[in-house]
Amino acid sequence: MALWGGRFSTGTAKVVADFTESISYDKRLYKYDIMGSKAHSAMLAASGIIPKETAGKIAVELDKIGERIEKGDFTFTPELEDIHMHIESELIKVLGDEGARVHTARSRNDQVNLDVRLYLRDEITHIVEGIKELQKSLVDRAAADADAIMPGFTHLQHAQPVLFAHHLLAYVEMFDRDAGRMIDCRRRLNMLPLGAGALAGTTLPINREMVCELLGFDFVSRNSMDTVADRDFMCELLSALAIFTMHISRFSEDLILWSSQEFGFIELGDAFCTGSSLMPQKKNPDIAEISRGKTGRVYGDLIALLTICKGLPLTYNRDLQEDKEPVFDAIDTVKMILQVFPPMVGSMELRRERMLSAASDPALMATDVAEKLVELGVPFRHAHHRVGAFVKWCKENGKALDQTTLAEMQITIPEANEGFLKLFSAHDSVKAREVTGGTGPENVRRQLEYWQEELS
């Protein structure tokens, strides 16, 4: 009979046990369940609810159970449903009535909430560390080719020359926001739920503040009903992970495009590509493509949890057992991405001449011409129209923008002077953009120094 089966006259059908079990995936919470039970039993003893000797025996046996699980010397069965029941059953098997005291003044409702918060607290720390390593790899790659110039894109059309380093640092900024969101989520979830009981607290004189301190939480939950029903912190983390993978997907798309024959800007290391089973010449950027695909998977995890929670009345409902698999899946997916991306970034080889050639199309400096007119006092909208007319004239007459004479340029840009003929250098265009946040070499150098210090 299950530990909760006193009210029942028959056992659970095997098909029901198999359908309702969660041990197949929540066993990864074992060390957090043990951690919470040790703190809880210590508090029960300090509050005079159970004998101190009993709490001591419970703590010793919990450590032994943890060691057995670590070594793989522990049997998990669907009949015991979840990690909580497995550990408690083992305590009772060894300690008898003394082990049965561990569940005093708590419910699996607040217990699982505790375990997941402890687990996510650690996992967020690991993920943030992984994001920092990814940022470092991007900064190192950017610093190694700080002067490389490439075309920047809008609408996937060549737009203006930019430094390759500037492009990579854009992703450093995105990933920094991702880390910030996860740190912020960690701060919010670092709340002690234990003591909320099934939904209404307990009549026993427990000391929740003591458990809060023992487990390193920042504060104690204020409303027991909200506590056992709350999965906001899981939804929030999945949202942050989904945004992170969206950024990974965008970066992957850049890598895929850059490594194509049409672009030819980079080549990824052989260790991070695969070949074709049919075409011997192929070198495919599969890591980037799979990561782009896994983004949809993490989106699905977020939508799954939001859907699970959307119609639940207060307080706890068994639907919430389905909360953990999406979270575990998203975390595992993101951690795999974070393992493979930093070395892949480090494996990139730049085709600098190809990048510079693409960035040297004089049409990419059209805005520079318009802004030179602004310096002469021409309103920008008038300048924009004149340069647009110049581009049109060049196209109709089969001339590149930098191949016209001054007289030809003055047909549509009467204010032009000899200096305008020198505005078609990609290097000069980049150097002219030293505004804060721009792609100018000095600004990019300062940004590299900032990130090198920030991530050191």
Brief synopsis:
The protein has 456 residues and is mainly alpha-helical. It has 3 domains: 5-104, Fumarase/aspartase (N-terminal domain) (Fumarase C, Chain B, domain 1); 109-207 and 217-357, Fumarase/aspartase (Central domain) (Fumarase C, Chain A, domain 2, Up-down Bundle); 361-454, Fumarase/aspartase (C-terminal domain) (Ribonucleotide Reductase Protein R1, domain 1), CATH 1.10.40.
Could you explain how this protein is built, in words?
It is a single chain. The radius of gyration is 31 Å and the shape is elongated. The chain has helices spanning 14-20, 23-26, 30-46, 52-71, 83-95, 97-100, 108-144, 164-189, 208-214, 224-229, 232-258, 286-309, 324-346, 352-359, 366-375, 380-396, 406-409, 426-431, 441-454, and strands at residues 149-154, 157-163, 191-192, 219-220, 266-267, 349-350. The protein has three domains: 5-104, Fumarase/aspartase (N-terminal domain) (Fumarase C, Chain B, domain 1, Orthogonal Bundle), CATH 1.10.275.10; 109-207 and 217-357, Fumarase C, Chain A, domain 2 (Up-down Bundle), CATH 1.20.200.10; 361-454, Ribonucleotide Reductase Protein R1, domain 1 (Orthogonal Bundle). Helix content is 60%, strand content 5%. The protein has a two-stranded antiparallel ribbon. By secondary structure, it is mainly alpha-helical. It contains 19 helices and six strands. The two termini are 56 Å apart. Helix 4 packs across helix 5, helix 7 (108-144) runs antiparallel to helix 8 (164-189) and helix 15 crosses helix 16 (380-396). The model has no long low-confidence stretch (mean pLDDT 96).
